[in-house]
C-alpha cells in the first residue's frame, strides 16, 4: 500500500502565528520541528495500517520546511520549488490513499491562519460553483487521479471544512481556533496520538473506489486587486467575470496545474506579506 502525504504548516500542532510558519519568523525553527513530528505521527499511522511506501511532499510556502534528518526513516521526501503540481507534487494514480497533514481552512473562514494559497491576495475561490480552498481543491484533484483523501489534520475549522467537502475523510483536530491568530492547543503527545490513530483507522477501513470525474471542471478565482486578472487574461482559456475575477475550464489535475501558473504570475506582481 503506497501512501502520499501532503504536508502544510498552518494546521500543525502548536502553531498559531506567521512567526511560527514563515522563514525568518521568531519561532519558525521550532515550527519546522513541530511540522516534522506531526508528519511522523501520520507516517507511523500509515505504517501501522500496512503501508509499504510513504511519499511526503513539503507543501508549505517555500516548500523547504521539512528537514529529512527529523523525519521517520521510511519517508521519501519531495522538497523545494517550483514544482509543477505544487502542493500535490508527486501524487500519482499509483498511490492507494492520500493524507493531508497541517492543513487550514479557506480564505474568509474563522480558522487559524485561514487563507487560500496566497495569503490575502486571493479573496475567494469556487470549483464548479462551490466555495473551495486548499482542502477541497486537493481532494478534487486527488479524486481525479483515482486517489482518495482518507485523513486530514489541522485545527477544528479545517477538519470541519474537510468533512463538509467529503464526508468520508477522517480528521484529527490538533487545536481549536479562538481567532485567526489564536487557538486552544491540545497537548503535543495527545495531538500526535490523535493523528496516528486517525490515519491508521482511515487506512484500515474499507473504501469504495473513487468515482471517475463527471467531466471538465470550472475554477473561478477572485483576487484582491485587478492587476493580477488583467495579466492572467493573456493565458489562453482564461476569461474574466469582472475586473477582479477570472475563470477557466478544464480537466483535473491539469486545471490544478494551470492554477499553479496563475499563482506564479500573481507572485511576480505582488510583494505583500500574507496573513495581513
Automatic annotation (TrEMBL):
<dbReference type="InterPro" id="IPR036177">
    <property type="entry name" value="Peptidase_M55_sf"/>
</dbReference>
<protein>
    <submittedName>
        <fullName>M55 family metallopeptidase</fullName>
    </submittedName>
</protein>
<dbReference type="InterPro" id="IPR007035">
    <property type="entry name" value="Peptidase_M55"/>
</dbReference>
<dbReference type="InterPro" id="IPR027476">
    <property type="entry name" value="DppA_N"/>
</dbReference>
<dbReference type="Pfam" id="PF04951">
    <property type="entry name" value="Peptidase_M55"/>
</dbReference>
Amino acid at each position: 500500500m503506497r501512501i502520499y502525504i501532503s504536508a502544510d504548516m498552518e494546521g500543525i500542532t502548536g502553531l498559531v502565528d506567521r512567526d511560527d510558519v514563515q522563514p525568518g519568523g521568531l519561532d519558525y525553527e521550532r515550527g519546522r520541528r513541530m511540522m516534522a513530528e506531526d508528519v511522523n505521527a501520520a507516517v507511523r499511522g500509515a505504517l501501522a495500517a500496512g503501508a509499504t511506501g510513504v511519499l511526503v511532499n513539503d507543501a508549505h510556502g517555500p516548500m523547504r520546511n521539512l528537514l529529512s534528518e527529523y523525519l521517520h526513516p521510511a519517508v521519501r521526501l519531495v522538497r523545494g520549488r517550483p514544482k509543477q503540481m505544487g502542493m500535490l507534487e508527486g501524487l500519482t494514480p499509483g498511490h492507494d490513499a492520500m493524507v493531508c497533514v497541517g492543513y487550514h481552512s479557506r480564505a474568509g473562514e474563522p480558522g487559524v491562519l485561514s487563507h487560500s494559497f496566497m495569503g490575502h491576495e486571493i479573496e475567494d475561490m469556487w470549483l464548479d460553483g462551490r466555495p473551495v480552498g486548499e482542502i477541497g481543491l486537493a481532494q478534487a484533484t486527488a479524486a481525479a487521479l483515482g486517489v482518495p483523501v482518507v485523513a486530514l489534520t489541522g485545527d477544528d475549522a479545517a477538519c470541519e471544512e474537510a468533512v463538509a467537502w467529503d464526508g468520508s475523510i477522517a480528521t484529527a483536530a490538533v487545536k481549536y481556533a479562538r481567532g485567526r491568530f489564536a487557538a486552544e492547543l491540545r497537548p503535543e503527545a495527545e495531538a500526535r496520538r490523535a493523528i496516528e490513530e486517525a490515519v491508521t483507522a482511515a487506512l484500515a477501513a474499507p473504501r469504495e473506489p473513487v468515482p471517475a470525474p463527471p467531466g471538465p471542471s470550472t475554477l473561478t478565482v477572485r483576487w484582491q486587486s485587478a492587476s493580477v486578472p488583467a495579466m492572467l487574461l493573456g493565458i489562453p482559456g482564461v476569461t474574466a467575470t469582472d475586473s477582479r475575477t477570472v475563470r477557466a475550464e478544464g480537466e483535473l489535475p491539469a486545471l490544478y496545474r494551470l492554477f499553479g501558473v496563475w499563482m506564479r504570475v500573481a507572485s511576480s506582481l505582488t510583494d505583500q506579506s500574507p496573513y495581513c
